[in-house]
Amino acid sequence: MIEGKPEVVRLALTVLLAEGHLLIEDVPGVGKTMLAKALAKSIDCSVRRIQFTPDLLPSDITGVSIWDQQRRDFEFKPGAIFAQIVIGDEINRASPKTQSALLESMEERQVTIDGQTYELPSPFMVVATQNPVEMEGTYPLPEAQRDRFMARVSIGYPSPEAELQMLDIHGGASPLDDLQPVAHAHDIVKLVDAVRAVHVADSVRRYAVDLVAATRSHPDLRLGASPRATLHLLRAAKASAALSGREYALPDDVQALAVQVLAHRLLPTAQAQLNRRTSEQVVLEILQHTAVPSASGHGSPMYGQQPPGARRV
User: Fold this and answer.
1) Nearest Cα to 2, choosing from 132, 13, 261?
2) Higher pLDDT, residue 87 or 114
C-alpha cells in the first residue's frame, strides 16, 4: 500500500496502540492521505473524514444542538469527530479557530456542547495530514494543537524501485478498493490494554525525563517539550516494545522515537532559524549528549522484566 516505507507504517501502528494521534506532514502527492485511509480501512471500526478548508466551522467538527419543533427541545447532531478513526485531511488549511475544535476531543476523548459532555468511542485516533507551512494557503498549527499529536512523521519520496512497484500496483485501480479489515475495534482495545501492561524500568523513565528536560534549557530553543511530551514518549516506547514482542521497554525504544515524538513540539529561536537549525537536528544533538542507561543484558532487572504473573504481549 505504502511502498518502501515500512518505518512509517510501523510508527502509525505504534501511535495507534499507544492511544495517541498522528500528524503526517509532507509535500503533496507522497501518500499522506493514502496512509491515513489505509490505516483506517484495515480496522473494522467507524471512520470519518474531515476535509479541512478555510470556511470549515468548529461546529462542523464537534456537532451542534438544533431546536426540534416537534419535541420542543434541542437535539444534538454529532459532528465528524464522533468516530473511532478520524482522518483530518490538510488540517492546516483551516483557521486556528477551527483547528482548536479538536483540542478537547484529542486530549480528553470527549466533546462539550452547550454545557453537555458527550463521550467519544473507543478506540479513538485522529490521523491528520498537513502540507508544510511554506505552502500557499496554509496556517501554522497552534502550539497547543501540535502538543496533542503524539508523533509527527514525514513520508518522503519513494525510492525508484518502490516508485516502479507503485506504478504496477496503483496503475489500474486503487489498492484501497481491495483492502480488507484485519482487526476489529475490540481487538485494538485489547492490544491497547496489553501495551499498558508493558513494564518500564525507573532507569528508562529517567532517561526519557532527561531527554525532555534537555529541550527546555537548550540555547537553540525558545519552547521546549511539555510534560505531556514525556508521557507520550513513554507510551510510544511501550507500544514499540510490544510490537517487537517484548514485555519491557528499552532505552533503544525511547531513542528510536524521540525525534518523531518531540521535534514537532519545539520552537527554535530566531537565531537558530537564521542558522537553518531545525528541531530535528536539536533532538538528535540532545540524544548524542544525554547519558544512556548502561545495559547488563536486555533481560536484566535493570530493564524491568515484568513481575511474575504479568501478561506477555
Assistant:
1) 13
2) 87
